[in-house]
Specification:
393 residues, alpha+beta, 11 strands
Length: 393
């Protein structure tokens, strides 16, 4: 590793939408035919394609993971998560008293918070250990359970503060993750300039999202109530019970759609601000990262990704992940140049059990994109994984 780059370098992703879509369709078909068992090979194929089209300073990344490693991770998650989840959601409601079943479900959700955090950590560790750039592999040190314990505490603070601790929690999670990340034997740092708040630029955007989404949460049902009253008093259609049921069902669906769209619109400024701030705090050997995420473009890409996931029933989720990968990399820069010639190979032990519980929660949509904590996409994916086996690329 002797080649040095110019002071300011741009990351790039050369993947094409229809190329990725074709692979995702093939993977989805084979996954259905094999009753989801092909998903390990599907993930590996998708990651190899996306990694090979990711360029840093003109050189591509390489993904060296295998389907057999992912399958071993699934075998670990089977008794640790899938079987207990099946009992809690499908057997307990019929086998035990409703009150006890309810408390069991509540306890399962509380326990799932640190499990999701640990799963994110194990998934990131595995994916980094299988990533090479210029022959040097990445890695993740630290303890997954330590990260899970801290995340659980931050989650409690988020609940107690009605969400207002979220920016600090997001920075804390990013700090703990990145300070344990390695490129070869070189650690990343998460540095805040003296006198600055770690959440600089995030609070006003978060306040906008919190207030406007709260208005949407209250306003949509109120508007639906006025629509219902109008339909009842004006007799615009047949007043049969069936007609009213259809009308009220459509109104309820409209409320859900408004809430979903409002979530994306209200929180887009905060998500863009948080992504840019976190990138600006990451350094390696004195070189700093810079991300240029913008509210409108991030909203459009996120909305398009949601539509793909919803309309395909999750089967084409890797395409949505690809869109996020390409969006970030094509707006990411490395300011100054690390001394790559002085970086040696990593001494961290590789993970040989795949992604473990990461497979259970399917946090990365099969392509290496780990959704930020608290994001609606991650929450919806986790909920889907609690109610069905994981499918998709």
């Amino acid at each position: 590793m002797t080649a040095e780059a110019a002071p300011s370098q741009t990351f790039a992703h050369s993947g094409k939408f229809f190329n990725v879509l074709g692979l995702a369709l093939k993977n989805a078909g084979l996954t259905i035919i094999t009753l989801t068992m092909y998903r390990f090979w599907a993930r590996t194929a998708m990651r190899r394609r996306l990694w090979s089209r990711t360029f840093v300073m003109g050189d591509p990344l390489e993904y060296t993971g295998s389907a057999s490693e992912l399958f071993r991770g699934f075998l670990i998650s089977l008794p640790c998560f899938f079987l207990p989840a099946i009992f809690v959601f499908y057997i307990a409601p019929y086998a035990i008293e409703p009150v006890y079943a309810g408390w069991l479900t509540f306890g399962f959700y509380v326990l799932s918070v640190p499990l999701v955090a640990a799963a994110r950590y194990w998934m990131r560790r595995y994916q980094l250990s299988r990533t090479r750039w210029r022959g040097i592999k990445l890695g993740l040190a630290g303890s997954a359970w330590g990260f899970a314990t801290a995340s659980w505490g931050w989650w409690v603070l988020q609940l107690l503060s009605l969400g207002w601790y979220t920016p600090a929690a997001r920075i804390n999670r990013a700090r703990q993750m990145w300070e344990n990340t390695r490129f070869g034997d070189q650690p990343f740092q998460f540095e805040v300039e003296h006198g600055e708040s770690p959440q600089k630029g995030m609070w006003w955007a978060f306040a906008f999202g919190w207030v406007t989404f709260a208005i949407a949460l209250v306003g949509a049902p109120i508007a639906a109530a006025f629509v219902q009253r109008y339909l009842v008093t004006t007799e615009l259609f047949d007043s049969s019970p069936e007609a009213y049921s259809i009308a009220y069902g459509l109104i309820g669906l409209g409320v859900l759609l408004i809430w979903g769209l409002a979530w994306l619109i209200c929180w887009a400024p905060y998500n863009a601000a948080a992504m840019n701030r976190i990138a600006s705090l990451i350094t390696i050997d004195g070189a700093r990262f810079k991300l240029k995420a913008r509210t409108i473009s991030l909203f459009i890409f996120t909305l398009f990704g949601w539509l793909i996931v919803i309309l395909s029933l999750g089967l084409l989720a890797p395409v949505a992940g690809f869109l996020q990968v390409r969006y970030i990399l094509n707006r990411l820069e490395l300011v100054d140049t690390p001394r790559f010639a002085e970086i040696g190979q990593s001494v961290l032990r590789d993970s040989d059990s795949g992604e473990s519980l990461g497979d259970a929660f399917d946090l990365d949509m099969g392509v290496g994109v780990i959704w930020p904590a608290g994001s609606p996409a991650k929450a919806s994916r986790a909920w889907c994984m609690w109610t069905r086996p994981p499918i998709g690329g």
